[in-house]
Design a protein that fits this description.
globular, about 280 residues, binds NADP nicotinamide-adenine-dinucleotide phosphate, Rossmann fold, six-stranded parallel β-sheet, 12 helices, alpha/beta
């Protein structure tokens, strides 16, 4: 069983790196990381790289880039899963987003291509505040975002990785779709305020309208497709549809999901929110 050959796409990212670590700790040695900087390289934007990475693998964990909600995702996932099955993959675990109808089309594609697969739909990650797009504004001491009133049950990437590992190693999860959330609904300003208190820094939260946010992103000269995706995630996914808590993490792992406060306590202790030079310069 521990000989299973497992491909982890995005194996250097937030959930993938944690999944790799856990599988290695359990004694799985046939793990391949899908990454643009590995050899062979894997790039979602270059389908010619896919076959070499899929070759000789049995199970694949899919973290799509940049998001299953983008208009081209369904076609890409169709093409990728067809090739994967052709090359012998019998099981896929797809990391998906909650409440994204486009992502759900991709889920259907995966389950149709390989019925033994598992869908792991997650709410927004805690680690968006420490390893992703909210980190720089936190360091700058000023976070400006829309949907300040929206309630989201942020999930911890460690919980997601624990669940993904179970779905990979235990066939009882085949064919299932799980919804992963944290145990508490909180708003973005509340999340920032918890981080601010824990790391002893004044981090301001400025509430924007969706349009103000788009204009702000344009002023940073971000590419239009990035702006579209960012706006989609706030406008669609944070419109209240996901303001509910699921207990799938507890059902699968037999323990409670990690609360945001626990994530904040552990992460504040690493010092990641106190990188002094950048934050002090911008704050003053
Ligand atoms: N963040 C959230 O709150 C959230 C919530 C629900 C669902 N999701 C979904 O989670 C998925 C991302 O998973 P994650 O957060 O674990 O990963 P991640 O940290 O966003 O990134 C994973 C890796 O993707 C790789 N990557 C970037 N562009 C690529 C490309 N063109 N081809 C191949 N690899 C590429 C990068 O690796 P290399 O540089 O090594 O290639 C990166 O380390 C997305 O589909 C997102 O929609 C996210």
């Amino acid at each position: 069983m521990k000989q299973t050959k497992i491909l982890i796409l995005g194996g250097k990212g937030k959930t993938g790196s944690r999944v790799v670590q856990r599988l290695q700790n359990l004694g799985y040695s046939n793990i391949r990381i899908g990454s643009r900087s590995e050899s062979p390289a894997f790039d979602w934007e270059n389908s010619e790289t896919w076959a070499e990475v899929l070759k000789d693998m049995e199970t694949v964990y899919i973290t799509f880039q940049p998001d299953l909600a983008i208009p081209s995702a369904v076609d890409t996932i169709k093409q990728f899963t067809a090739l994967a099955v052709e090359l012998g993959i019998s099981k896929m675990v797809l990391l998906s987003g909650r409440g994204e109808k486009e992502a759900q089309l991709c889920e259907e594609v995966v389950l149709k291509a390989a019925p033994n697969s598992t869908i792991v739909r997650a709410s927004w990650f805690n680690q968006n505040f420490s390893e992703s797009f909210f980190l720089d504004p936190i360091l700058a001491g000023h976070v400006s975002l829309p949907r300040a009133e929206a309630l989201e049950p942020f999930t911890d990437a460690n919980d997601i990785a624990d669940v993904v590992v179970q779905t990979i190693i235990d066939d009882k999860h085949n064919g299932q779709t799980y919804e992963l959330t944290g145990p508490r609904l909180l708003t973005l300003p509340k999340a920032i305020s918890e981080i601010s208190k824990a790391c002893g820094r004044n981090i301001q939260f400025q509430s924007l309208t969706l349009d103000e946010n788009v204009n702000l992103l344009r002023s940073y000269q971000l590419p239009e497709d990035h702006i579209w995706l960012f706006n989609y995630l706030f406008e669609e996914v944070l419109d209240g549809r996901n303001a509910t808590i699921s207990n799938d993490i507890e059902k699968i792992l037999g323990r409670k999901a990690t609360d945001f406060s626990e994530f904040v306590k552990i992460t504040a202790a690493t010092g990641v929110w106190n990188k002094p030079v950048f934050s002090e310069e911008v704050a003053h």
